[in-house]
User: Fold these one by one.
Assistant:
Number 1:
Amino acid sequence: MNYVELPCQRLEPGKPVPFNIWDGRRNLLMRKGDVVQSVQHQDMLAAHKACVSEVDFKAWQRSYDRLVYRMFREGASMGELARSYMPSKVEDVDYVVGFDVTGGWLDLHEVLGSVLYMGAAARSPLERLDGVQRRATDLVSTDPDACLFTLFQLMPDATLGYCAKHALLSAVLCELTARKLNVPDLLRPVLVRAALTMNIAMARQQDAMARQTHAPTPEQQTLIHEHAQRSVEMLRGFGVVDTDWLDLVGAHHAPDDLGGADPNEEIKRILRMADQFIAKVSARATRAALPTRTAVRFLVAKPAGNLLRIGSAMTAAVGFYPPGTYVALANGETAVSVRRGAAANNPLVVSIMTATGLALGQYVARDTQDKAFSVLAPVSAERLKFNISTEKVQRALGKTAGA
């Protein structure tokens, strides 16, 4: 068993310890539930190189992270957070061991999909959700344009479950928008977790409704109406104790509280807008996907100040022509958007089709700020009769970088 040395000054005098504490030679110093008597007691523990098992320490750290999050939500200053003691109680949920996901978005889709589609019967759901959230956030931090490109390319793929695709793209859009709005680092993970799980109670039916050629049945309408609260109950069944996570999921279809009294209202609005935007740009068997530029306009169509602010941030985060979507250029070519530009309507694109509709053997990067290659209109993915080569896209970008 591995052991970790304790930061003894973080043990609160007068409070019990939440685990057994050992000295450097693995002799027992304190049993779980024993009370730290004083500052001098802290010093004595430090002198004996007090340590705990790595499992206990990681659980303690998770419990501390939750405590700091709550203090922050209650208005504590950064100085107060830095001086706070570690908690004297560790919840069972804190012993959840994260499930490491090291691959790309297809791997995340597989792991997340297994949780969403199994629902209440999912094995180790919190571990898997934790792994998906951490890996997704890492990927966004590394290259947000590559994330958007991959996910928008996956959206038309009928072989992949819609619910998991919707959840991942919503999570990325929430994270990027929250960064634009300077949402504190402590708050963003709960927003991403809510985006990943908001539709867990209707995952299989959401996939079915995306494929069916008729309107939702009465049973499906009931599920649509009730799925937010059903998702909350399912998450509670997993052992989720984060009230903000549950609150966000439960309110993701609720009307906006324009009064703004709810401290979670801003991140709730981010989640609602992301959910609605992804639904609009996703094709159904009964309708084509709405062009992204049209869907973006809905984000800033409402006059209320804070809604406009959030919609504008989301527009800046995704652009009029997000990476992975297709556009028609002024010279007649069809291109795929690859990177967001300085302006929402000026992405960097790579031409993949000639003006006569023939696939280009060699893709060519175009700067849409040049009037000769300006974007005229979005192009539906359903109109393309071939799959684009990501290798050719990267090769075209490489030539641009080396030019």
Number 2:
Amino acid sequence: MLNYPNIDPVIFSIGPAKVHWYGLMYIIGFAAVWFLGQMRAKMSWSPIKPESIEDLVTYGALGVILGGRIGYILFYNISDFLSNPLILLKIWQGGMSFHGGMLGVFVAMWFFSKKNQCSMLQLTDIIAPLAPIGLGAGRIGNFINSELWGHTSEVPWAMIFPNGGPLARHPSQLYEAFLEGMVLFILLWLYSKKLRPVGAITGLAMFFYGCFRFIVEFYRMPDAQLGYLALDWVTMGQILSLPMIIIGAALFYYSNKTMNIKLTPHNS
């Protein structure tokens, strides 16, 4: 068994204002998209110029935050919302959904694509290889917050979390940080180094994230207010990830087999 590091979730305070590690992880994720997005926007096939990345990140950040919050309420806490709709605004109480955030980003990229006269998939192909950095950082934030821990276990790397009871548990946040963060980033970054059909990178990202999340859910405790939804092992995370796997695989296959590469270079 390993000792849980028990890091203070608050980095520092200035009067009543507190800076949390979890919030810093969001900043790291958005900064990574901005920095690496500049590099990808310089490629000849990019539908936007590097100076447009700042606006793209702004749209994406709004999609992540609004979609993540709305998704959490609808997918994981709908009963409380129906009794008190104002909880939708109480972001400081916690509660964000990756799947909701992903849908929010797709909506944001759709609006941004209309503004820049390109396809939504061209934009998501640019940011998809960069998103795992934020995903991995976010899971590290969950670990520091001692939340979303796993089932009790006797594996040598199990930990006793401060609010997880007296028994050692799987550090499932670290499993997700590794798979959804590091492994997914490497896969997508290497695949996207070459010119690919429009939508292929997005499809691959959806497929692998869905697979990784589906697997880790076997080790992660379900949300307390929901529990298991079927068969004593099916979780909401798995139900939401299954369409990602199917749609991602279909998009990847369709992009490589039947879609024409419609690119509008701005460099020569």
